[in-house]
Here is the input.
Amino acid sequence: MAEGRRSSSTPRARGAASSQRAALSCGAALPRRAALAALAAVALAACGRRAPAAQGRARVVSLSPSTTEAVCAIGAGAALVGRSRHCDHPPEVLRLPSVGGYADPSIEAIIALSPTLVVGARGPAGPALEEALRGHGIATCFPETESLAQIEEMLAELGRRLDAAPGAEQAIARIRARRQEVEQAVKGRPRVRVALLFDTSPIFAAGPGSFADELLRLAGGENAIARGGAYPSISVEHLLALDPDVLLDGTAGVDGADAPGAQGAPRLAVLRDAPGWRSLRAVREGRVRPLRTDAVLRPGPRIGDGLAEVARALHGDALSLSDAAAAPGARGGGAGPVPPSPAGAP
Here is the structure.
């Protein structure tokens, strides 16, 4: 769900949720609600059985922003031959042909690219997609990414499959280093009671069992939403009853999220004078904090930077943390060249 603008995997959620995660693993371009639904859907089996090795180099189609980022982050970007329409990072992937959305990929478009491996976030396409691809002799990998440990395992698995284990190890090391930095920075600080919202109509939030819930905890927060599943839908009245100290606004990018790289205005800023919303203590007291990077919403290799963004939103910009751009390898550690798109590709 986060993947949607998010589609961010999981949670922004519309494209994902994104990857979000959803993409949540569909990164910021997934329609938010679609990605949230994706994360709630019955998922694909973790990593599909491997098809017989194809002759020549790997050819990878990625169906979620988080896995597209992962392939590039481990140094295997040259293997990418197709993406979902929500994949927009790194910018070079926009040259690749699109095979549809997070929830509605085109089997025909995928097969036309002759992939040796199709990767993506678990999503609404369900086991039928994996079965159809296997029937064409195409290997699949749709790993679960609802924790930092699972995100690291996803990177390691792609490293094994794409002969990029050293790059995967470096990407994992960057996540762990960023996590350690954040945990040290928030150590000893009072925990902040917080709710992270992905959408507002209806309200979708980060709940227990989601990677976003883990980010809140590691960043020194206490998730006010303690039940209802990983991405529950709640009412304004329920939010009023929970009365969080801080609202994290993960709604930017809902409008126009089908365009790669599109990012709208955070919706909570628009709703601050709306009935119900204006009664929230966090709104009245000016503690609605927008999330300024889709790395928070995509369960992929930039999740360490997403964690740092959550920590800053909870504790203030004065928190002693390096900037993502300044952190060693923060830009992906050498994605490798992305091949040009064929003429006329979508």
User: Anything to note?
Assistant: Confidence is low (pLDDT under 50) at residues 4-55, 253-264, 325-337, 339-346. The chain has eleven helices and ten strands. Residues 44 and 127 are 5 Å apart (CA to CA). The radius of gyration is 19 Å.
